[in-house]
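User: My advisor asked me to double-check a structure prediction for NEDD4-binding protein 2-like 1 isoform X4 before group meeting. I don't want to rely on an old file, so could you generate it fresh from this sequence?
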Amino acid sequence: MISRSSEDRNLCDEYARLGLEAEMFSTDRYHESTNYTKGNFQRNHQQNREDVFKALNRGVDLIIVDNTNISLWEMWPYIHMGMRQGDYYITMMELPKGYPQNYISINKLYRCCQGNIPKRKFRSFEARWEDAYNIWHVLNDSYSINRWEQREEEWNVQ
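Assistant: Sure, here is a fresh prediction for NEDD4-binding protein 2-like 1 isoform X4 from the sequence you gave:
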């Protein structure tokens, strides 16, 4: 899969030098050890959400979620968790910086993932792309709220 950015690793290292705890979470970590199937894909994302929830509850100082989020509903659980925790400043970053000038072609993404994700899936990602303007845009998205409202995952228990 695509490796985590060096900026994220540098930020974690900088926090560690200050004696603060920083953790990076990526669903790609789970994808690397499973075959690409819809069931594994969904389970891997659920595991990542659970790991982030546990880190929030432990009070980890910096939590980086390094996921490829295509739609607002994919971002919503992480932002919702952070807001509910109350102690976190949340920011979203779109990578690669400079997109669309630094556009990564589907063929390049396919090669980076060593063919584990079919090209048709990358095309569907591209077609589903939604711009996220800020955290409020994500949190107030009615489709995201409806999608997650009844979802029974540990992080979503009121």
